[in-house]
């Protein structure tokens, strides 16, 4: 009886807190809870790469709704301008735009140097930017694949290294890395792309283990096929992966955001756990043959560059 009365008394307080500044509203598995955000407003700054489209944009919207100051990074300044206007309308704090092609050597360090020059302390780093080249490896363009490796791996590692040191010095921070279910699946016709995602998962899990007991957490978001521009830009619209009800990027972003805020190691959107388990127990060649069926086209097409 006492427990029941205590709950009845506390519930209005909890409901009130959910709507108070400094509290984030999240819904894991359909259950509403609140997590107190103890950061002061001036200390709530997130940097998001690939923030102008897809999962990166959906993540940016969530951070804006929670009144974060934001640094958004992408290649095209005009897209960033439109994104910044939307984020401010959603209630974000200060929005800083950095137009940078992270597939180019030195670009990631340029981003870090620019935030340092402006005196911006980044508390949360979201490495979302990534590209893929589609086609048989013997036919795809080598320069595009080297640029892919630079963006998906080199820039991600560089940004993680530089901002992590600052987070440790300031005694707090969170990092979200975008991998893919392809991290568990060697994927013909997306061979280099899938390999980079496997690197991101391995690197992030190792780093997260190194940081256990520290005030910094590392979370890896592992989505399945998602309804972004990836398939259209890759010329993959007629593959099974594109046509088989890809996931809503807003759903993927919400799962990643919630896991990041809780400090979880992995964020698995709906349906991914089954794929991860299956890919973990079967031999790689068997997994690769199954993955290949998902990316085969109805008609052969010339390899194109894809953005995710």
Keywords:
308 residues, alpha/beta, Rossmann fold, seven-stranded parallel beta sheet, two-stranded antiparallel ribbon, 11 helices, 11 strands, 47% helix, globular, disordered N terminus
Care to describe what's here?
The protein is of the alpha/beta class. The chain has a single domain, classed as Rossmann fold (3-Layer(aba) Sandwich). 47% of the residues lie in helices and 16% in strands. The chain contains 11 helices and 11 strands. It has helices at residues 2-18, 54-65, 77-89, 107-117, 142-169, 191-210, 230-234, 240-243, 249-262, 272-281, 284-295, and strands spanning 23-26, 33-36, 45-49, 69-74, 95-99, 124-127, 131-133, 173-178, 216-221, 266-267, 305-307. A 7-stranded parallel beta sheet has the order 5-4-3-6-8-9-10, sandwiched between helices. A two-stranded antiparallel ribbon has the order 1-2. α2 (54-65) packs parallel to α3 (77-89). It is globular and about 50 Å long. The protein starts with a helix and ends with a strand.
């Amino acid at each position: 009886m006492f427990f029941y009365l205590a709950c009845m008394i506390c519930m209005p307080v909890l409901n009130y807190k959910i709507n108070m500044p400094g509290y984030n509203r999240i819904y894991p598995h359909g259950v509403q809870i609140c997590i107190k955000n103890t950061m002061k407003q001036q200390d709530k700054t997130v940097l998001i790469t690939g923030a102008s489209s897809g999962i990166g944009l959906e993540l940016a919207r969530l951070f804006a709704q929670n009144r974060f100051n934001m640094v958004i990074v992408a290649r095209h300044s005009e897209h960033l301008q439109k994104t910044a206007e939307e984020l401010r309308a959603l209630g974000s704090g200060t929005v800083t735009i950095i137009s940078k092609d992270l597939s180019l050597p030195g670009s990631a360090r340029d981003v870090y140097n620019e935030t340092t020059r402006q005196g911006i302390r980044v508390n949360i780093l979201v490495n979302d930017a990534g590209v893929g080249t589609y086609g048989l490896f013997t036919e795809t363009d080598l320069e595009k694949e080297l640029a892919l490796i630079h963006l998906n791996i080199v820039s991600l590692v560089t940004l993680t290294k530089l901002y992590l040191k600052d987070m440790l010095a300031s005694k707090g921070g969170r990092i979200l890395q975008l991998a893919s279910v392809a991290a568990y699946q060697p994927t013909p016709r997306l061979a280099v792309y899938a390999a980079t995602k496997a690197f991101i998962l391995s690197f992030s899990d190792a780093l997260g283990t190194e940081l256990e007991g520290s005030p910094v957490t590392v979370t890896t978001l592992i989505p399945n096929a998602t309804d972004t521009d990836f398939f259209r830009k890759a010329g993959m619209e007629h593959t099974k992966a594109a046509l088989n009800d890809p996931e809503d990027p807003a759903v993927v972003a919400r799962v990643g955001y919630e896991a990041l805020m809780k400090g979880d190691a992995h964020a698995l959107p709906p349906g991914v756990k089954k794929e991860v388990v299956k890919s973990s127990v079967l031999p790689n060649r068997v997994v690769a043959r199954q993955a290949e069926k998902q990316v085969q086209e109805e008609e052969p097409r010339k390899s194109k560059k894809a953005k995710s």
